[in-house]
Amino acid sequence: MATLKRILLVEDDPNDIELTLTALDKYNLANEVVTVRDGVEALDYLYRRGDFADRAEGNPIVVLLDLKMPRLNGVEVLRQLKADEQMRLVPVVILTSSRESRDLQDCYQLGVNAYVVKPVRFAEFGEAVKGVGLFWALINEPPPGSVK
Known about the structure:
Elements: E1 6-10, H1 14-26, E2 32-36, H2 39-46, E3 62-65, H3 74-83, E4 92-96, H4 101-110, E5 114-117, H5 122-139
Parallel strand pairs: 1-2, 1-3, 3-4, 4-5
């Protein structure tokens, strides 16, 4: 039986969603990519509540998290996940256009697993997603409780 690799993509920009999904699909890096458009939806998905109350059990192998989003930003999502004993082991990779040193510092202090600045050009963006995907979907051994 094939191994299921579920990635949670938390992104509000439709173009970045399309580019990320295209890159992950091109390199067959995930069987399933769940996309949510803000931090509130991300937490609902991870905690299996609201529209996601009936989703399959298990956490994603990695959360690709944008910072600048409506309703609840990525730093606050990260803060909540890393403060929760049950969620702190879920790998989180910030995938953002922000080069602000404050964002970088805040994310690492909160326990982010990686911080990747999105390149502007399509080809470079695809390569960045490929690199992130290769590591988290193929090389890294996910924590217990992940759908792998």
